[in-house]
Design a protein that fits this description.
Blueprint lengths: L6 H5 L6 H10 L9 H28 L4 H68 L4 H12 L5 H4 L3 H116 L5 H12 L11
Helix pairs in contact: 3-4, 4-5, 4-7, 5-7, 7-8
């Protein structure tokens, strides 16, 4: 600091001289290439060297400032000036290192993502083998047999599965065995179902025949009942008709009897009437006697009645 002409630099002395600052500036004027191992190491070394000088200045600043406030302000000013010069050298180096760190981190992430994507692609291929079995579940034996042939003809290539090829081969063999078991189980279920269906069809045919016979028997019995009912109806109608005719005959006879009795009564009445009129004519003339008798019959003479 002895070559400085500023009043502040003449008073305040730091261990970092202008010559050292120039030396550092020249030393790191051309920044190392962080993409190479040596350049990246040189960049880290440079940052550490600058940071060491910068933190050293901070320590000296605090020591020099302790004597007096004015002296402290000069110390601060000089420390700030030197720090700014050091930062002018350090900041481009830090920026370049940060950019390289970010570039390396990006490459690392891309590699990790690519590796994960490859793992997912391989797992998807393995899952496709499992899907063949899942798809065959619940289908008929013909479909299962077709899928089994498709599965058995599948070739497990190292280019497709890479480090998981051995696991893929084991998985493929396991799924093939499961498909064979599924085919055997499905075939047996279909056989049992077919036998059951045949038995049910036979039973249904027998039931249909019995039902036919039952309906025919019911029809025959119904016809017989209808015939018997018709006979009973005819008999009932005949009986009712005979009764009605007998009743009509009886009523006619009774009516004839009532008419005859009425006529007989009327005759007796007329005879009695004639006799009464004849007797009455002994007292009055005939016309007068008839008029009196007519008043008696019609109730025009109180308390007087006539009966044969």
């Amino acid at each position: 600091m002895e070559n400085m002409t500023s009043p502040v630099t003449q008073v305040v002395k730091y261990s970092a001289t202008e010559a050292q600052l120039e030396e550092l500036k020249l030393k790191y004027e051309i920044l190392p290439d962080p993409t190479t191992p040596k350049g990246y190491r040189d960049l880290k070394t440079g940052i550490a060297e600058i940071r060491q000088n910068r933190t050293g200045i901070e320590k000296e600043r605090k020591a020099l400032k302790a004597d007096a406030l004015e002296y402290g302000r000069r110390v601060d000013a000089e420390a700030k000036r030197i720090t700014e010069k050091l930062l002018e050298i350090e900041e481009p180096m830090k920026k370049l290192k940060q950019e390289e760190d970010e570039r390396r981190e990006k490459i690392k992430r891309e590699k990790e993502e690519a590796a994960k994507a490859k793992e997912r692609a391989i797992e998807a291929k393995a899952e496709a083998i499992r899907d063949i079995y899942r798809d065959a579940m619940g289908k008929d034996s013909e479909y299962v047999a077709k899928k089994l042939i498709e599965l058995e003809s599948m070739e497990i290539k190292e280019a497709d599965f890479e480090h998981m090829t051995e696991r893929a081969v084991i998985l493929h063999g396991k799924i093939v065995d499961m498909m064979k078991e599924l085919l055997a189980k499905t075939t047996e279920q279909e056989r049992v179902a077919k036998e059951q269906e045949e038995r049910e069809a036979e039973l249904k045919a027998k039931e249909a025949e019995l039902e036919k016979q039952r309906l025919e028997q019911e029809a025959l019995e119904r016809k017989q009942r209808e015939e018997e009912a018709e006979k009973l109806r005819i008999q009932k109608e005949t009986t009712i008709k005979a009764l009605q005719e007998a009743e009509a005959k009886y009523q006619a006879e009774q009516e004839s009897k009532r008419i005859a009795e009425k006529e007989e009564a009327q005759k007796r009445y007329d005879v009695s009437k004639d006799e009464a009129i004849t007797k009455l004519c002994r007292s009055v003339d005939h016309d007068k006697a008839v008029a009196i008798f007519d008043d008696i019959e019609n109730g025009r003479i109180p308390h007087v009645t006539f009966s044969a």
